[in-house]
Amino acid sequence: MSASMTNGSTTNTTISPEMTGRHDLISSDQVEGTSVYSPAGEKLGTVKYFMVDKTSGDVAYVVMSFGGFLGMGNSYHPLPWKALHYDRERGGYIVSLTREQLEAAPAYAEDMSPDWTNSRYGSQVDTYYGGLPGM
């Protein structure tokens, strides 16, 4: 895959990932909808979106859609971004969690949204995952 860079109305050189050395980068719209699996290969859910620190630009959490049927009744689970590891063979992310651990994790319903401006919510998420082996 290559990309064209434009400068105003003119198109410059085509840049391939091999030329830039950045072939491991992925756009946010390609992350959304990516499957998340347990180490045993069980599909746990899909990436809904992720939360980016406005100041540092670092991805802090990926919010995973979990449960439900045909997109209804899902719960949303923020997972520390660093806890996910991309598996090229599966074309998805692996997280060292069981379904039971995920069910007990901090979550919210589709029609609700946590107050990310309140540091207590992020601390609750970090405390839960920090207490699990392998996280």
From TrEMBL:
It comes from the Bacteria. Residues 1-17 have a biased composition (Polar residues). Transmembrane segments: none annotated. Residues 1-22 are annotated as: Disordered. This is Photosystem reaction center subunit H. It holds the Pfam family PRC. Residues 25-101 form the PRC-barrel domain. It comes from Komagataeibacter intermedius AF2.
